[in-house]
Amino acid sequence: MDLDDLARNLARVREEIARVQAAEGVAGNVGIVAVTKGHPAAAARLAAAAGLEDLGENRVQEAVAKLEELADLRVRWHLIGHLQTNKARFVPARFAMVHSVDRARVAEALSREVRRQTPQATLPVLLQVNVAGEEQKAGCVPAEAPDLAGLVATLPGLALEGLMTMAPLTDDESEQRSVFAALRRLRDDIASVGIGLPELSMGMSGDFRAAVAEGASMLRLGTVLFGDRAP
Asked: CA nearest 102: which of 133, 78, 125, 129?
């Protein structure tokens, strides 16, 4: 892939976002987190050259090495994959946002590390919610999200900014939309008790249209931008 290929893919994605928003009567900015997981550092450089300022990685150890190699890039790195508490020490000063806070222990570990390493900074985080109830996926159950949101909102060093979820791997758009709509309603329920959550991180390459239709504010896109990952 070269820069022209990526620019064309990005233009198609943005055209689709605009088309879906117009068709559904949905307004609002939709940010793109370009997921470079599994791609070489060169893909991240292409993304930055194409004007993408937010890049996402799933695995902390892979990300740390890549971030060191790409320290010169003016981008914001997002941790979008599952975070173990013993890896929290690698997050401050490296990541601009963590999308995958799903337990009190993870949030508390991040809070401790932010206060220890970067005491003047605040780390934006999202709660990952397993709306679909799939056993193989991380995330708190929806019923636990309000209490977890209340806890995270009180932790020093963290700024709770929204929710994240993943839909089941299916081509059924109605099923995709059902999951994303449930996350939006959960966000609204939590907001009704005084915890504002402006960000909805939902939608990946295979289901981003459904996510846009249900009000996503951030999409996590890899394959649709960069093509298939090398085995």
From this structure: 129
CB 95 within 8 Å of CB 77: yes
Ranges of each domain in the chain: 3-225
pLDDT tens digits, residue range 82-96? 999 999 999 999 999
In whole angstroms, what is the distance from residue 132 CA to residue 141 CA?
9
Measured N-to-C along each axis, helices 3-24 and 41-49 cross at an angle, to the nearest 10 degrees, of 60
Q: Phi-psi category of 209—alpha, beta or left, where left has phi over 0 and alpha has psi -120 to 50?
A: alpha
Question: Does the pLDDT of residue 190 top 70, yes or no?
Answer: yes
In whole angstroms, how far apart are CA 17 and each of 25, 28, 149, 210? 12, 11, 29, 10
Q: Which residue has the tokens 């758009």?
A: 173
pLDDT in tens, 46-68: 999 999 999 999 999 889 999 99
Residues paired with residue 219 on neighbouring β-strands, in sequence order: 32
Q: What whole-number distance in Å separates Cα of residue 202 and Cα of residue 187?
A: 12
Domain 3-225 grouped into CATH 3.20.20.10: yes
pTM over 0.90: yes
Rounded percentage of the chain residues whose pLDDT exceeds 70:
99
Q: If you ran DSSP here, which 8-state letter would residue 146 be given?
A: H
